[in-house]
Design a protein that fits this description.
Blueprint lengths: L3 E12 L2 E12 L3 E6 L5 H8 L7 E6 L9 H7 E4 L11 H6 L3 H4 L5 H13 L15 H15 L3 E5 L7 H15 L4 E5 L3 H7 L2 E6 L2 E3 L10 H8 L3 E6 L2 E6 L1
Parallel strand pairs: 3-7, 3-8, 5-6, 6-7
Antiparallel strand pairs: 1-2, 1-4, 8-9, 10-11
Helix pairs in contact: 5-6
């Protein structure tokens, strides 16, 4: 039986007096690439941050491997949780190699070991950006910076990796390359939980799918697949058609 990496029980979240979603309960399986989908403003990124312990729910519980992230020490948290935000700001002109090495700080402290260097170098190869290793991070394009930050999370080696629209700045080549890598790693090393805005990327690479609509998690009806055209049309409030592909489907506007 597949165990849960993340579990929400009767979880609600509000910004001030404005509820984002209410009374959510969900279990995210381990060693899968799970994707959260929904319209802009549906609360996907907020849900991801609550799951990762970056935001506290207004009520209910959010657990990672059965533990409240607030109860974890710094090193324990680094071992359990990695988070790639949608936006980040480059400040100092560190080399790409040094930026990725900082992903090991939560695991090993501020004096990196030989093992930390080896893990960082391996991560550079995993995401195919070793050719950028000696370049200043601040001189990279937005897409290249996004790849570097994804590589930094892989070097951290947390059990669960949360990704908020990781492909938003990437071209078609790197979208496919990064998501293929993440999917492969989710099978034997990490649990991946991503917010994606493109259902075609989600269905191409994802294993499990969770849909937010009007403050609720919704599921396809019995007998429907996650890529059912009528179901998705209701999720995104626009007429959609689906084209079967490799046991799943591509989504197009009707």
């Amino acid at each position: 039986m597949t165990q849960s990496a993340v579990s929400l029980q009767n979880c609600s979240f509000s910004y001030g007096n404005q509820p984002v979603w209410t009374d959510l309960s969900v279990d995210i399986p381990e060693n899968q690439f799970s994707v959260i989908l929904g319209r802009n403003g549906s609360g996907k990124s907020t849900l991801l941050r609550v799951m990762a312990g970056l935001l506290k729910p207004s009520s209910g519980t959010a657990l990672v491997h059965g533990k409240n992230p607030d109860d974890l020490s710094g090193s324990e948290r680094a071992g359990h949780i990695g988070f790639l935000p949608q936006f980040h700001r480059a400040v100092f002109p560190f080399s790409v190699r040094d930026v990725i090495l900082t992903g090991r700080a939560g695991r090993s402290g501020f004096l990196p070991t030989e093992k930390d260097h080896e893990i960082s170098e391996a991560a550079l190869h995993q995401t195919g950006i070793f050719h950028l290793a000696d370049k200043p991070y601040t001189q990279l394009s937005g897409g290249e910076q996004q790849l570097v930050m994804a590589t930094r999370i892989l070097a951290q080696q947390p059990a669960v990796i949360f990704l908020d629209e990781p492909t938003s700045h990437l071209d078609l080549y790197y979208q496919s390359a990064l998501l293929s890598t993440l999917k492969s790693l989710s099978k034997d090393q990490f649990t991946m939980i991503a917010v994606l805005h493109d259902p075609n990327l989600a269905f191409r690479f994802g294993d499990e799918f969770f849909f937010l609509r009007k403050g609720k998690l919704v599921k396809p009806e019995s007998g429907q697949e996650s890529w059912d055209a009528d179901f998705l049309s209701g999720i995104f409030d626009t007429p959609l058609e689906t084209i079967p592909f490799e046991g799943k489907a591509f989504v197009v506007h009707r």
